[in-house]
Design brief:
The protein is of the alpha+beta class. It has one domain: Aminopeptidase, CATH 3.40.630. Strands 1-2-3-4-5-6-8-7 form an eight-stranded mixed beta sheet, with helices on both faces. A hairpin with a 5-residue loop joins strand 3 and strand 4. Helix 1 crosses helix 2. The longest helix is centred in the middle third of the chain and has 15 residues. The radius of gyration is 16 Å and the shape is globular. This is N-acetyltransferase GCN5. GO terms for molecular function: acyltransferase activity, transferring groups other than amino-acyl groups. It comes from Alistipes finegoldii.
């Protein structure tokens, strides 16, 4: 799969992506990705080669030099429903690149993968991801209080996260694109 945008290429992962992947996943900025922390180029290569078959996961690269700056992913939960997410390198924030990539990825899921509904979970304190969902036209559907724990407090007890849900239907996506 290859999607080209004005500034980006969204494509399958390649071995050369290991260095860039390590750069942004060596210290995941949100707790839900703590289990994906990478500590070496070898672990980044393993991450690339061990993508579960049911997960659509693609590298987001700069068009000018094909350097990976993030990734987008989706899990098909029902025949027509996808749970989506993304990681982006902090070094490239504030340039609209995450919005550009996520817009094209969601469009791909609606057009090519038969999505009727796309939703994402966002930790309540992840303001950048919440804003991205809103810019994409995703509707805030609610916040589950103390929904899940990814990390522990210093005393070893679980730290539960408040988790928001954002979603968009295919018909809403089409209406938003026509405006």
């Amino acid at each position: 799969m290859i999607i080209e945008t004005e500034h980006l290429i969204i494509r399958d992962f390649q071995e050369k992506d290991a260095v860039g992947l390590l750069e942004y996943l060596s210290h995941p900025r949100v707790n839900c990705f703590v289990s994906e922390r990478l500590c070496s180029e070898e672990s980044a290569l393993a991450y690339i080669s061990n993508t579960p078959k049911e997960l659509l996961r693609y590298a987001v690269c700069l068009k000018e030099d094909d350097f990976i700056i993030g990734d987008v992913f989706a899990l098909r939960e029902e025949a027509d429903t996808f749970n989506v997410g993304w990681h982006f390198n902090q070094r490239f924030e504030g340039k609209g690149l995450a919005h550009e990539a996520a817009t094209e990825f969601l469009d791909y899921l609606f057009r090519e993968a038969g999505a009727r509904r796309i939703y994402g979970f966002v930790e309540d304190d992840n303001l950048r991801s919440k804003r991205l969902c809103e810019r994409l036209g995703m509707r805030y559907e609610g916040c589950m209080k103390e929904f899940i724990s990814f990390v522990c407090h210093p005393d070893g007890t679980p730290r539960y996260e408040d988790t928001c849900i954002y979603a968009v239907l295919n018909k809403e996506w089409k209406n938003n694109k026509n405006r």
